[in-house]
Amino acid sequence: MSRTAAARTAPTGGDGAEPAGETRTALRICPLCEATCGLTLTIEGTRVVSARGDRDDVFSRGFICPKGASFGELDADPDRLRTPLVRKDGELRDATWAEAFDAIAARIRPLIEEHGANAVGVVLGNPNVHTMAGALYPPVLLSVLRSRNLFTASTLDQMPKHVSSGLLFGDAVAIPVPDLDRTDHLLLLGANPLESNGSLCTAADFPGKLKALRRRGGTLTVIDPRRTRTAQLADRHVPIRPGTDALLLAALTHVLFEERLTDLGRLADHVEHLRDVEAAVAEFTPEAVAAACDMDAGEIRTIARELAAAPTAAVYGRIGSCTVEYGTLANWLVDVLNVLTGNLDRPGGALFPLSATAPAPRPAGPGRGFALGRWTSRVSELPEAKSELPMAVLAEEIDTPGEGRIRALISIAANPVLSAPDGDRLDRALEQLDFMVSVDPYLNETSRHADVVLPPPPPSQSSHFDFAFNAFAVHNQARYTPAAVPLEEGRIDECEIHARLVLAVGGMHGAPPEAVDDMVIEKALTKAVAEAHSPVHGQDVKELTAQLSGRTGPERRLDMMLRTGPYDLTLDKLLENPHGVDLGPLQPRVPEVLRTRSGRIELLPGPIADDLPRLRSALDERPAALVLVGRRHLRSNNSWLHNVPALNGGSNRCTLQIHPDDAARLGLHDGEQVRIAADGGQVEAPVEITDTVRTGVVSLPHGWGHSRPGVRMSVAASRPGVNVNQLLDGSRLDPLSGTAVLNGFPVELNATR
Length: 753
Ligand SMILES: Nc1nc2c(c(=O)[nH]1)N[C@H]1C(S)=C(S)[C@@H](COP(=O)(O)OP(=O)(O)OC[C@H]3O[C@@H](n4cnc5c(=O)[nH]c(N)nc54)[C@H](O)[C@@H]3O)O[C@H]1N2
Ligand SMILES: Nc1nc2c(c(=O)[nH]1)N[C@H]1C(S)=C(S)[C@@H](COP(=O)(O)OP(=O)(O)OC[C@H]3O[C@@H](n4cnc5c(=O)[nH]c(N)nc54)[C@H](O)[C@@H]3O)O[C@H]1N2
Ligand code: SF4
Ligand SMILES: [Mo]
Hints:
binds molybdenum atom; Dimethylsulfoxide Reductase, domain 2; Rossmann fold; 16% strand; binds iron/sulfur cluster; Barwin-like endoglucanases; globular; 27 helices; alpha/beta
């Protein structure tokens, strides 16, 4: 047994005491982005002193980036909260776990009883997809709360993709990912994996995979208003006008029909409404969209022909195609193009991953379909999508008086004061709540408003399995890393925090936390044994429950999901294979994956057809003189890594990037402060003149603005930056998905001299 393997089985339980100074290694899947790299941690006593890429990891093969390398520094950040905080006499003070959960039970239950379930809002932030707790417990929390006021980072991010997948395939989480390792041609829109390491396309070493694509003779086209590091790798970079991707994609679709370049291949028998799509895009000729996109009509035709001619190809869009005015239409068109070129669901194209914890595939056939707008938000009456309301209306749901107002908020791993539009308004709204709980390691711009803060332990002390990202990975695999360091005295695991939260708000305060896991296991197994296609069909629930291994509730739940899943896997098998189990390349899954009412791919869904007139009218709109887009830096992760000294600095700076021609026109000099104004407000930032951004476009990153009082993030506060989302008032949304328009909105610049 290797040292590493020995370390993996050692600590978690017991007292875990280690003589200080003794060095060992342990494996930990990195939780800092979607690439899910395997890390080898070197641990001295209980301190992580270094992190390297795990060369034996079946998925990441040793890849690591600067964020993963700073795992130890992040883990040991002295600003991390060590104990729960409870507000007394207006001030947040250290408290015991018992006091914290008592306070939650005492305050939330009466509010629900008096004002109903919707009086409690829930906000789920991005790191929930990077923790086991965040995958396993929020669904239970929501089922006990039964509140319609759910807001997540998805409506600042990928909700357009969920809506598009829901409508096309009948399953909002059936998201095709580009087959990076095998494709011959990648058309990439609004994504910068060289900095982000990829998203809704989990691939460790995305940069290496793009280089390999080119080495094997494949081609890469990048559509991005900035000449990003990803664009610099491409065969073709198109600096499109922000917000117009849907027009470009509609024109590409048009060309495929017009030039008879469609070839659905095996999918031909599984697609509805093909001719309706042809009619729907009839007006979107390359010539008609060229001016709006600021592209050459000939180039649009070339891109369409290249896409059709490639032996295999994948169209892939991310943030720049999501958080924009026509986000759902663009995301729909991405997969329409994949279908029309026969690339959906074929090796080398865009395929549906099958994760180890997904339910075992059921036989093909009609499903329940996907419905949008089953209820609306109270104030602006915006439709729900995937049971969520737009994050952009959270503030108004709190600060607008009347029946149904949100009076209490449970915020888990979220920092909407910085990540959502108009943080100032949200900041004030949070002050008006009767009660707020934050599950968060930091006292930051959002959690500072909480009455109770529940801090999870640092990542070295948490076990990890990627429930979310395995479902979007470019290669099927499963890896589990138990906690690398034993829980520090006085800490409780984040899974237990969530379980106790569920019990406290669900009227079962004080019950053992495993009760939550037992309840879930019983319910899930009862369902599984009744399903003919389940590997446990017809078996006895009690016996199955007794077979589950795992030292903790979450481990037993993982074991259960593996046993009822599509592969012959158990928790023990994952523990025996600490570097992971390779489950092979992605396989075709149509029609089994489809859940539409027709059991086929519904290529022109009604809500999409109804939204197309909006896109048609965009053809005649006069573009704004200057629009703003965001950007990500390799050493960042949204709003919460600015407190790690190694990650705060270098290229990771909150500057306003502007093209030299625009700077000259506006008389702006490099380094000077500029005032940026938009319909929601204004902020000031230093000018950075660079020709990597096209003319007519400026770029300011998000996640900055750490200057509010009461925040306990000393490093971040020393270089606060400004909050780009203060430029927005939350009214610009992609209507079908409720996703905030964070890219491509008009701004004005004024020197502060
Ligand atoms: N203008 C603009 N705005 C954007 C974006 C953009 O591109 N431009 N991007 C959007 C996107 S894609 C996203 S996903 C959102 C993100 O929006 P949020 O999810 O609101 O923001 P994060 O900065 O990811 O903050 C997450 C919070 O989780 C906490 N946290 C970290 N680790 C853990 C943990 O292990 N457990 C718990 N319980 N908490 C933890 C952090 O301290 C922080 O408070 O921002 C969006 N906002
Ligand atoms: N280092 C780092 N990695 C991260 C994160 C981070 O903050 N830092 N965040 C993580 C999260 S939560 C997410 S969701 C992913 C996001 O992953 P990506 O989508 O790859 O992230 P971005 O770097 O925001 O890339 C969006 C690109 O879209 C471009 N763009 C803006 N508007 C438009 C437009 O209208 N059309 C087109 N075609 N392009 C446009 C921008 O210039 C930018 O280059 O990254 C994840 N990984
Ligand atoms: S690429 Fe992502 S998962 Fe890999 S080490 Fe960097 S932050 Fe971690
Ligand atoms: Mo995100």
